[in-house]
Amino acid sequence: MRKIISTMWVTLDGFIAGLNNEMDWVGESYDEAMGKYESDLVNSADTLLLGRVTYQSFAGSWPHVPNNPDAPEEEKAYARTLNAMRKIVFSRTFESVEWNNSTLVKEVVPAEIERLKQEPGRNIIIYGSASLVRTLTSFSLIDEYQLLIHPVILGQGKPFFQGIKDQVKLKLVDSRTHPSGVVVLFYQPREKRA
């Protein structure tokens, strides 16, 4: 069975963005190890689950990277992989999605997500998309959380797991430290909730 893996950049004090969605704190930590992590992750999967905000950001940039003469070859290869992947976009407000291989879904139906996990293929990744992660967490549908803890304290911002009503017990299955100071923590649920 395929796994749903959530990957999220988080500050040391638990924020995924500043109060105005700023993420300028990420750039200083992006190094060769981060590039390898991102490349390995995307190559382990064939499907992306995206919320509206992350979809807009990704669809606005990644389709154009392969033709950008100033983009490094590693970034172009990563963009080609993302562009070729199947993308399922969750949004109640969109009428359509234009990025190739994208399908629009209006709401999360747990049985449909379980069916998706049963399909043959590689893993399913959720980049960012905090509200989608929170929804799937509430249905016990995420198999692994990969948190990239950045060495910065914002003091205020948008918390990742805000609004989770039920406790979710996790076990640490791996951790890695990048030269930049980013620590990647790999967690899996201890048990499935009913």
From TrEMBL:
State a single Gene Ontology molecular function: 5-amino-6-(5-phosphoribosylamino)uracil reductase activity
The segment(s) forming the Bacterial bifunctional deaminase-reductase C-terminal domain are: 2-184
Q: Name one GO biological process term.
A: riboflavin biosynthetic process
Cross-referenced SUPFAM superfamilies: Dihydrofolate reductase-like
Q: InterPro entries annotated for this entry?
A: DHFR-like_dom_sf, RibDG_C, Riboflavin_Biosynth_HTPR
Checking PANTHER family in the record gives: 2,5-DIAMINO-6-RIBOSYLAMINO-4(3H)-PYRIMIDINONE 5'-PHOSPHATE REDUCTASE, DIHYDROFOLATE REDUCTASE FAMILY PROTEIN (AFU_ORTHOLOGUE AFUA_8G06820)
Name of this chain's protein: Dihydrofolate reductase
Q: Which organism is it from?
A: Ktedonosporobacter rubrisoli
